[in-house]
Design brief:
This protein is α/β, with parallel strands linked by helices and 318 residues long. The chain has 3 domains: 59 residues; 49 residues; 167 residues, Ribonuclease H-like superfamily/Ribonuclease H (Nucleotidyltransferase, domain 5, 2-Layer Sandwich). It has 14 helices and 6 strands. Helix 1 runs antiparallel to helix 4 and helix 2 packs across helix 3. 22% of the residues are buried.
Length: 318
Amino acid sequence: MTYRHLTEDERTRIGCLLQAGISPDQIALQLNRSLSTLYRERARNGKGCVYDASVAQNLARRRASWANAHPRIAERVFNQARRYLTRLDMSPAQIAQRLPISHESLYRWIYRKITQGYAWDTHLRSGRCRRQSRRSRRLAEARRQRALPLAQRGEAANLRLEFGHWEADLLLGRKDCAAAVLVLKERKSRLTLLVRVARQDSATVMRALEKRLRPYHADLKTLTTDNGMEFFGHRAFVARTGCGMYVCEPHSPWQRGQVEGENKNIRQYLPKGFNVDRLTSKRLRRIERKLNLRPKLVLNNRCPLEVAIYLSGVALRY
C-alpha cells in the first residue's frame, strides 16, 4: 500500500468528527486510514486534548518545509575532507572542527565511499567498513559493565599471594577459521591450560572455560579477561562457581600480562595464520604439556605443573 500524507480535507473531517464525539476507531474506518495514523496526527499536530484542523494543517506545512531546508554541501568541502582523512588520518570529529560539515555527514559519506570500493576504513580509528548500530553499542556496553573493573581486584590476586587467580584470552588463527584456542593462565603457579573451542561465541567459550577449570573449582577465586564479546556471558559462570569476574580496560593488554606473555610462547607451535579448525585435541595437549614442564626462574627453576600440584593438590595427566 502506497503511503500518502493526510490532506487538508481529511484533517477538517477529523476535527469535525472529533468534536461530534465520534471514536477514533470509527473515524479511521470512515477515512480508510490506519488507527495509528490518527493517533499520530493528534499527537503531532494537536494541542493537548483539542484538535484544530487549521492549526494542524499549518503545523504540517511548516514541518514539510523543513525537510529539504539544509543546503547541499559543496564538492570542495568533501575534497578537502578527503585530503584530511587520507593524508593526515584525521578523524571525522577533527575534520568537522575545520570544515562546515558535521561529523555525522562525514561518517555517512565515508561509509558510502567504502561500499563503492574506496579503502578508507584503514584511516578510521575503528577500522570498520560499516556503521555500528546504536543498539549494538548499547548492548555491548551493558554486557561489558556486568563484570567488575580490574581496579577492584584484591591484592591477593595482584600480588600473587595465593593459588586460584586466573587470566583468560582467546588465541585466533586464520581469519576464515571458526575455531579458536582458549588460553587460561594461573597467576601464582604460571600453569597454562589450553582448550580448542569450535566457535567464538560467548556461550561456547564460557562453557569450555568452565569445563576446563572444573578440577580447580575448589580453589577458583578470580578470572580476568579482556573486553571481547566471547566473555560477555559470564553471569551464569560466576553464579555456579562463585568466581569473581574482572575485566581489563579497553586496549590494555598489559593488564593481563601473564596470559599475553604465554600467547607468544604458544605462537612457537601455532603461528599466526594457522588453521585452528584442523587442530586436534591430542596436539593441543602436547603443547600444553611442554609449556607446563618448562622450568621457570621465577619459580626457583621449578616447572608450573609441579608448583600447581603442590598448591592445589590437583595432578594433571598427559
